[in-house]
Amino acid sequence: MKKGLIAIILFVFAVPAVFGTIITNTNQSVMYIRLPARNASMLIDAVYYNPAGVVHLDNGFHIAIHNQSIWQDKTVINDFPFLNNDTYVGEVRVPIFPTAFAVYKTDKLAISFGFGPNAGGGTADFTTGLPTFEIPVSLVPTLISQLGVPTSAYSVDMAFKGKSVYYGFQGNISYAINNVFSVAAGVRYIHAVTEYDGELKNIKVNPQHPLINSSGGMMSAVAFFTAVQQPGYAAAAADIAADVKQTGSAITPLLGLNIRPNDSLNIGIRYEFNTKLEMTNDTTVDGTGLFPDGFEFRNDIPAILSLGIEYAVAPQLRIMVSYNLFFDKSAVWGEDLTLSQDDLVDSNSYDIAVGFEYDITDSILISAGYLRTQVGVKDEYQDGFSHELNSNTIGFGGRIMLTPKISLDLGGLYTSYTDAEIPLQRVDFPLPFTEKYQRSNWAFSIGIGFHL
Question: Which of 43, 249, 269, 290 has the largest CB neighbor count within 10 A?
Answer without folding.
Answer: 43
